[in-house]
Specification:
This protein has helices at residues 46-60, 62-67, 108-113, 118-137; strands at residues 72-77, 93-96, 102-107. The chain has a three-stranded mixed sheet. The protein is of the alpha+beta class and 147 residues long. Helix 1 crosses helix 4 (118-137).
Length: 147
């Protein structure tokens, strides 16, 4: 802890401990107290969890971003805007070449809704990022994978 950030213990936490409306435990579990002076996140929204996953993947690929000559922005959006007559499979990611720097767009909903669990979401995100970067940098995806 830094200077001036000393926790203050004031007694039992106020609030109810019941699970109201099926949303999980709230209130006292997320409030600051003797065991969690700065509070803890009681729930991470799916959007934030997906953004953290993409950030972890990009952190692992950081050495490639330093060595490659073509700059790439990686962007996360909820879903693609498709025309009403669209009858093909919904894309999970797309690479935009005609902008500088090139852009890899990951679509959170199509990527995550097609998966049964978090491990499968992570695998699909890894695959989408590796495939998109390999397309921009003209290298095989296997050469980028640090796992």
């Amino acid at each position: 802890m830094g200077p001036g950030l000393e926790p203050v213990v004031t007694g039992p936490r106020p609030g109810r401990l019941r699970d109201r409306r099926g949303r999980g435990r709230r209130g006292p579990m997320a409030l600051p107290g003797p065991l969690s002076p700065f509070s803890i996140p009681a729930h991470r929204p799916p959007r934030a969890a997906f953004d953290l996953l993409v950030a972890e993947v990009l952190r692992a690929l950081e050495p490639h971003f330093r060595t490659e000559t073509v700059a790439v922005d990686v962007v996360v959006e909820e879903a693609p805007l498709l025309p009403p007559a669209w009858d093909e499979r919904v894309p999970t990611s797309v690479v935009v070449h005609h902008v500088t720097p090139a852009r890899l767009v990951l679509y959170r909903l199509p990527l995550s809704r097609a998966c049964a669990d978090e491990d499968e979401v992570a695998e699909r995100v890894w695959a989408a990022v590796l495939d998109g970067l390999a397309e921009v940098w003209s290298v095989p995806p296997e050469s980028l994978d640090p796992r």
